[in-house]
Amino acid sequence: MKQVVTFGEIMMRLSPPLNYRFAQAATLEVNYGGGDANVAAALAGLGVPAAHVTCFPDNDLGRAAASQFRRFGVDMDHCVYQGQRLGLYFLEVGASLRASKVVYDRADSAFANLNPDSFDWEEILKDAQWLHWTGITPAISASAAQATADAIRAARKLGITVSADVNYRRNLWQYGQTAQSVMPALVAGCDVAVCSENDADDLFGIQAAAGADNKFASMAEQLMARFPQIKQVVSTKRKTQSASHERIKGMLFDGTYSETPYYDITPVVDRIGGGDAFLSGFIYGSLHYATTQEALTFAVVASALKHTIPGDVNLITPAEVEHIMQGNTTGRLVR
């Protein structure tokens, strides 16, 4: 099987233990993650060959981050080492009525200052079947946006499937360009888009038709008309009960609307990476199942399971997902 290749920044995650507040913390637990890299690591764990491409600082922290993803089975051979700074984020995990909090410290990172010419995308993608990126990557800097555009262009030339989680983060766009001016040209090169109704409105000015019975399907149909390369639009819908209790379902439009039932998750252990788990599950399902309904169900179950796992990466097996897909949702001990 050919590789799935992802591109984007990897950051160090620092968290107080358990559900401690920042003000209580005497120690911080270290993890590494990034939206695109989390997809690659989850796929590698599911048995799909995966590679991640990024720019690390040329120091021990950059090499430590790369080493963690290698342990997950991700091919990191195309990463570049230049610059001095690894981006950080600090996570305080909430509980019940208290929401989780994230503080970012990623300005002037090695990834933000990458040189787009450092990546030979046709060489990187020569053994690939799929390229995935998120809207966070072109938000970081002009050079990161250029590298994303270069990767998509090479993937289109090579006939590789391209997916994007458009993931609009308003506060990240600080380098003089807006998401609304940059993202359309990038999304135009995609076959699969993860896009919510809110992101479609914020990024592309697309709103569900007035009076539409299914607002997601109405939005997705317009998105596909605007960007004809897109063949599938997928997303999740959440009913958040508290920081510790979530309900989630998957939605897909490819000319026909599909959805899954809601899955109930309580207690939530860690929300970070739930969207990445959904997309990695959808890629796996698309490569292994005969129907989009099966792929979508695999994706949302994979996301639900991620909420039970600490850290950024979804460390699950296909058998664990399929066990739940068969209706085994009690979490009963498996011997």
Short précis:
Keywords: Kinase, Transferase. With 335 residues, this protein is of the alpha/beta class.
Verbal overview:
By secondary structure, the chain is α/β, with parallel strands linked by helices. It has one domain (3-325): Ribokinase (UDP-N-acetylmuramoyl-L-alanine:D-glutamate ligase). It is built from 11 helices and 15 strands. It has helices spanning 35-45, 60-71, 121-124, 136-140, 142-158, 179-187, 197-204, 215-226, 274-288, 292-306, 318-325; strands at residues 3-7, 11-15, 29-33, 50-53, 55-56, 80-81, 88-92, 101-105, 128-134, 161-165, 192-194, 232-242, 245-253, 257-259, 263-265. The strands form 3 sheets. Strands 1, 4, 9, 10, 11, 12, 13, 14 and 15 form a 9-stranded mixed sheet that branches. Strands 3-2-7-8 form a 4-stranded mixed sheet. Helix 2 (60-71) links the parallel strand 5 and strand 6. Helix 1 (35-45) crosses helix 9 and helix 10 packs across helix 11. The chain is globular.
List its traits.
nine-stranded mixed sheet, globular, UDP-N-acetylmuramoyl-L-alanine:D-glutamate ligase, 335 residues, alpha/beta
Q: What are the segments in which pLDDT stays under 50 over at least 5 consecutive residues?
A: none
Helicity range:
25-40%
By CATH, the topology is UDP-N-acetylmuramoyl-L-alanine:D-glutamate ligase
Q: How many DSSP-defined strands?
A: 15
Count of helix runs? 11
State the end-to-end CA separation. 32 Å
Q: Judging by the overall fold, what is the CATH architecture?
A: 3-Layer(aba) Sandwich
CATH superfamily: Ribokinase
The residue-averaged pLDDT reads 96
CATH hierarchy class name:
Alpha Beta
Q: What is the beta-strand fraction?
A: 15-25%
